[in-house]
Amino acid sequence: MLGALFKSGFAKMLRPITWLLVRVRVHPDLITAMGVVGSVVAAVMFARGRLALAGATVLLAGLCDVLDGEVARMGRRGSKFGALLDSTMDRYSEIFVAFGILWYFISHGWLWTSMALFFTLAGSLMVSYVRARAEGLGEECTVGLMQRPERVITIAAGAFIGPKGLAAAVWLIAVLANFTVGERLWHVWKRTHRLELNEGR
To answer: In the Cβ-directed half-sphere of 87, how many Cα atoms lie within 13 Å?
Structure first.
């Protein structure tokens, strides 16, 4: 996926910063918290109509989402709770940003796009839920067109373009995030169905 490749390439570019953060012993959970704060700031900027600034802030918050994992790995400070906290805060970050975008569109009379945002947020949360549930059942599930990196990039790009670009980003995620849910369900069904067939032989 584009987002996965972007995140991997971005992580390599950020290695000097990651190394510095490890050296000064910045805890990964602090970076996670900074990402949430960035998302709240982005939400406020969206609500106030400062779309380009909001888009840039979303990208910076996404940067924290890359850095916290890289610092945890490089500094060998990863933990099960840290992974849980990261995933939970990522969901809150998406909710905060969606609320800011919703405020903007409602205040400008974009009723249909405001309604589409419900499906955007629902799809985004369900993409993560299906992966977590599948992994809880022992199945790896990282497939899909619209994972978190793609969603962050899409929202930021739409915000840079302007109101129509942001609206297009909302509709695009509304469709593709829910399509990704279907992709993941299909992926897990194929894997589990194949195993069940093999066990029945």
So the answer is: 15
Confidence (pTM)? 0.88
| The architecture CATH gives domain 2-199 | Up-down Bundle (1.20)
Distance CA 154, CA 85 (A): 24
Closest CA relative to residue 144, chosen from 162, 126, 167: 126
Structure tokens at 157: 């790009």
Q: Enter the tokens of residue 116.
A: 């589409």
**pLDDT, tens digit (0-9, with 9 covering 90-100), for 42-101:** 999 999 999 999 999 999 999 898 888 888 888 888 888 988 999 999 999 999 999 999
Main-chain dihedrals φ then ψ at residue 176, nearest 5 degrees: -75, -30
Cα–Cα distances in Å, from 184 out to 141, 149, 172, 181, 190? 6, 16, 18, 5, 10
Task: Give domain limits for the chain.
Answer: 2-199
Question: Residues 6 or more apart from 184 whose CB is under 8 A from it?
Answer: 127, 130, 131, 134, 141, 143, 144
The residue assigned the tokens 């930021």 is 156
Tell me the C-alpha distance between 24 and 183, whole Å. Answer: 42
